[in-house]
Specification:
The structure holds two protein chains of two kinds. Chain A has one helix and ten strands, in the order H-E-E-E-E-E-E-E-E-E-E. By secondary structure, chain A is an alpha+beta fold. Chain A has one domain: Rieske Iron-sulfur Protein. In chain A, the strands form three sheets. In chain A, strands 5-6-7-8 form a four-stranded antiparallel beta sheet, with no helix packed on it. A three-stranded antiparallel beta sheet of chain A has the order 1-10-9, with no helix packed on it. A three-stranded antiparallel beta sheet of chain A has the order 2-3-4, with no helix packed on it. Chain B is mainly alpha-helical. Among the domains of chain B are: 198 residues, Cytochrome Bc1 Complex, Chain C, CATH 1.20.810; 92 residues, no CATH class; 67 residues, no CATH class; 85 residues, no CATH class. Chain B has 35 helices and 14 strands. In chain B, strands 3-5-4 form a three-stranded antiparallel beta sheet. In chain B, strands 8-9-10 form a three-stranded antiparallel beta sheet, with no helix packed on it. Chain B has a two-stranded antiparallel sheet with strand order 1-2. In chain B, helix 4 packs across helix 9, helix 5 runs antiparallel to helix 8 and helix 21 crosses helix 22. The longest helix of chain B is centred in the N-terminal third of the chain and has 30 residues. The N and C termini of chain B lie far apart (92 Å). Classes of the chains: A alpha+beta, B mainly alpha. At the A-B interface, helix 1 and strand 5 of A face helix 6, helix 7, helix 10 and helix 33 of B.
């Protein structure tokens, strides 16, 4: 009896997991293209931050690596998480905790002729 | 009153909790009618502005839920205290223990459904925390929160999953779901009163402080200290486990469980107090006496009785624009105000982002409470011009500029008074004390710092001093001037409300005049005017004289050649010179980086191509001149700052006046200026200055009987430094 119940429950759990995985995959956005302004040193979007330092361009996920809060403010060239105060430098490295991991780097393609940037999310 | 005493003597915490649960459920059904889960934040703001009845039900739902949590915890404590009361089967007690967690989840999902800045960040934290659980984290997180942009699943869990679970648990535990009429009546009265007086909070999405619900501020504080946040989940489960352990085992285990719970609860309460009262923007520590403490740290809740007949027609709210995702009561009434530039159009940024007040109020007086009449004063610039979405990079550095610190003026004055042995010491106007030099400055000089607040509506005039951002960026057109004048004559006339002064980049000589027609008098000298000791009546109707608003009389001598060509102060000075560049300077010559040679160069100029402009210069250039793609801008030799109104093309340098847009070709210096090395150590002004003002016999004296004025605090005082004028001269300047 208990074994049968266990098997049925396990079956439901597998189905539950498959359902969620499949739904998440459908919901995932793979890339986004938007206008690129070369004069902006820091560009904040909901999901990413574009940082231009001299001629070097980097795109980071705007999610704090501590608990995923969106970072959207900068003070003295430091990115600061509003929820718990983690601070990252302009290379995405944590300078003050609680975050210990660097911001996730995102791949991008720059189309200079059309001033557009495509970011892989 | 006897019936009240009877209820009080008969009731239990559990009875009150059940009554609160019932009110919470019923009010939840009512608030579900206007609430739109597809547009949660917008619909809540709309409810608050235009639908006071719905707002009341929302408040009822909010307050009954908060008190349900509080009374549930008191009820548990009461159970533990009265040990004999705990005779519950293990299975039921396990479900009750889990029920404590479910209460928090029901509350938290309600908090998430606001979808404001607080809620969105809380959702991400919850998502990350649950996803961090090994193996099943992602599955649980997605099953609880659903798709990132959707609130549907959270809504379902809030109104069904957790609520039904709690209803079952309550029934299983109490063997009843209906409270007694007496308790229900008393609790309803109390909650109704609370709901009428205090509106449930909604973040304005502008305040930089992000906080979770009050009962999770302790957890937020714990997370601030934890680099491995999943540990916090262990603390949560430890709480639940300890609750489960309390009724079982021998007396020693029960004692340990209870004491552990008590200690953990007290510690958690302490952390909650820290999170609630001592944490501000970016979760930084903040003391209650700090500037803007209540705005930065405390929940934006206040006693403001509901206005059941709102001043705002609902149909106007529907058609009003969305400001940062929400409706704003200000733009519903002030819907046709003219005078703005596109970037400050209230249809895009609202009124609240500059003027403060209460954007979700339906009552006129309450909506206007606490407004800033003149946004941009430096004391509150971080709440207006400097909010995250606007110009924080400027307001964070403007206080380093000399126009805000007056460092050189103060330092030299103290040196002259023999109070310091060095005229180059760094200081600020905010550190003035009561020494003779400092009193001298306060009586005669320091009205001109940017931090001196503008306190009245009206244009920048020759008498204006200070005013923060709007000292330079405020412009009244004819309509706004007329409206302001009518309003001054007749305060009840509301014509002025239709015409707003413009906040823009048209920084004219008139903006500089108030302060810079004093001291070195560069504003008047530049335009060719030299101050005299004449009386107004002696100079009236004489075109060779100019009478300024403070009744000083100036004589025309000779204007600067640049002024003759139509150039204004702003044509040469860039944003980093005027608004500071983040570095504290002791003297003006260190902060100003433009020189004559930057425009009048020989050889090749220092250039910056358009695509390498810094962000601020690029924005200003495009706002002033439209597309500047492909331009090569001349940059200053000192600090390499781009002069955004210049460009170099086909070996020729051009200069555009910033306000008039008049084009000039820049000429190189005369051949004699650069021939050989004879003039290498001379500045251009050595030869090209036609005249400079000086004064003979001017002196200052302290008069203890004089009625004085402290220009820093803007308060009258007895005893003052007095300025005595001798003779003003306009001669060639002395070299050296």
């Amino acid at each position: 009896m208990k074994l049968s119940a266990g098997i049925i429950l396990a079956g439901f759990a597998v189905l539950w997991d498959k359902m969620v995985r499949s739904d998440r995959e459908m919901a995932a956005i793979r890339q986004i293209t938007l206008p690129y302004n070369p004069n902006r040193d820091f560009t904040f979007h909901d999901d990413f931050i574009i940082i231009k330092k001299n001629d070097d361009l980097q795109v980071f996920s705007s999610r704090c690596t501590h608990l995923g809060c969106i970072i959207r403010s900068i003070e003295n060239e430091k990115l600061i998480c509003p929820c718990h105060g983690s601070t990252f430098n302009s290379d995405g490295h944590p300078e003050k905790g609680p975050a210990v991991k660097p911001l996730k780097k995102l791949a991008y393609q720059l189309d200079n002729s059309n001033q557009q940037i495509t970011i892989e999310l | 009153m006897n019936w009240l005493k009877h209820i009080w003597s008969q009731t239990t915490w559990g009875q009150i909790t059940i009554a609160l649960f019932l009110i919470c459920c019923v009010s939840g059904i009512f608030i579900a009618i206007p609430f739109d889960v597809e547009r949660p934040y917008e619909s809540l703001s709309q409810i608050m502005i235009a639908n006071p009845s719905a707002s009341f039900f929302r408040n009822l739902h909010y307050w009954s839920a908060q008190l349900f949590l509080v009374f549930s915890l008191i009820h548990i404590y009461d159970h533990f205290k009265k040990k004999e009361g705990i005779r519950i089967r293990k299975g039921i007690w396990l479900r009750l223990s889990i029920g404590v967690l479910i209460i928090f989840l029901a509350m938290l999902t309600g908090f998430l459904l606001k979808a404001d800045a607080d809620s969105l960040q809380a959702r991400r934290i919850l998502d990350s925390l649950i996803a961090g659980i090994p193996f099943i984290g992602n599955l649980l997180a997605y099953s609880l929160l659903g798709k990132e942009e959707s609130f549907q699943l959270i809504y379902v869990h809030h109104i069904a999953t957790f609520t039904i679970f709690l209803a079952i648990i309550i029934f299983e535990h109490a063997r009843k779901i209906w409270p007694r009429w007496g308790e229900l009546l008393v609790v309803t009265v109390v909650i109704t009163l609370l709901s009428y007086l205090i509106t449930a909070p909604l973040h304005d999405n502008l305040n930089p402080t992000v906080k979770g619900p009050w009962y999770f501020l302790g957890l937020q504080e714990i997370l601030h200290w934890l680099s491995t946040p999943s540990i916090s989940l262990l603390v949560v489960f430890l709480f639940v486990f300890l609750i489960y352990l309390v009724p079982f085992g021998d007396a020693r285990n029960v004692f340990i469980s209870k004491r552990s719970l008590l200690i953990l609860t007290i510690l958690y309460l302490l952390l909650t107090v820290i999170g609630l009262f001592f944490r501000g923007p970016n979760w930084q520590w903040i003391w209650p006496l700090e500037q803007d403490y209540s705005y930065k740290a405390l929940p934006q809740m206040r006693i403001s009785p509901l206005n059941l007949s709102p001043d705002i027609p609902p149909e106007k709210v529907i058609s009003s624009p969305l400001i940062d995702g929400h409706k704003e009561s200000c733009v519903v009434c002030h819907d046709n105000v003219q005078g703005f530039t596109a970037s400050h159009n209230p249809q895009a940024i609202g009124c609240f982002s500059c003027h403060g007040g209460h954007p979700f109020e339906s009552d006129k007086n309450q909506a206007h409470a606490g407004m800033l009449l003149a946004p941009g004063n430096l004391a509150d610039a971080n709440r207006s011009c400097g909010t995250t979405n606007c110009h924080p990079e400027i307001t964070s550095r403007i206080n380093t500029g000399l126009m805000a610190t007056l460092s050189g003026m103060i330092s030299v004055d103290r040196f002259v008074f023999n109070e310091r042995d060095n005229p180059d010491l760094l200081t600020t106007v905010h550190h003035l004390g009561n020494s003779a030099a400092d009193e001298h400055l306060k009586n005669l000089c320091v009205r001109c710092h940017l931090g001196n607040p503008k306190t009245e509506a009206g244009p920048v005039t020759e008498k204006s001093r200070g005013g923060g951002c709007i000292a330079c960026h405020l412009n009244y057109d004819q309509n706004a001037l007329l409206g302001n004048a009518i309003h001054k004559d007749n305060p009840k006339d509301t014509t002025y409300l239709g015409f707003h002064p413009s906040i823009d980049l048209n920084v004219t000589n008139d903006h500089c005049f108030g302060c810079h027609s004093r001291s070195g008098r560069i504003s008047t000298n530049y335009e060719g005017w030299h101050e005299t000791t004449l009386e107004v009546k002696e100079a009236r109707n004489n075109k060779h004289f100019r009478i300024v608003e403070d009744a000083r009389v100036f004589r025309f001598v000779q204007e600067d050649v640049h002024h003759k060509l139509g150039l204004e102060c702003i044509d040469c000075h860039n944003s980093y010179e005027l608004m500071g560049d983040g570095t504290f300077y002791t003297h003006e010559e260190m902060q100003v980086n433009i020189t004559c040679e930057d425009c009048h160069f020989s050889g090749n100029p220092n250039l910056i191509p358009q695509n390498e402009l810094d962000q601020e210069s690029a924005i200003i250039a495009s706002l002033r001149f439209g597309s500047v793609t492909g331009r090569n801008f001349i940059a200053t030799e000192d600090k390499n700052r781009p002069l955004i109104n210049t460009y170099f093309k086909n070996d020729t340098a051009f200069f555009l006046s910033k306000d008039s847009k008049k084009l000039h070709q820049l000429s190189p210096p005369a051949e004699i200026c650069t021939r050989g090395e004879a003039h290498n150590d001379l500045s251009c002004s050595s030869c090209h200055t036609a005249w400079a003002p000086s004064c003979l016999g001017c002196h200052n004296e302290y008069d203890p009987t004089e009625a004085g004025y402290d220009m820093y605090t803007n308060k009258e005082q007895s005893g003052s430094w007095v300025e005595y004028i001798g003779e003003f001269n306009a001669h060639l300047p002395a070299l050296g």
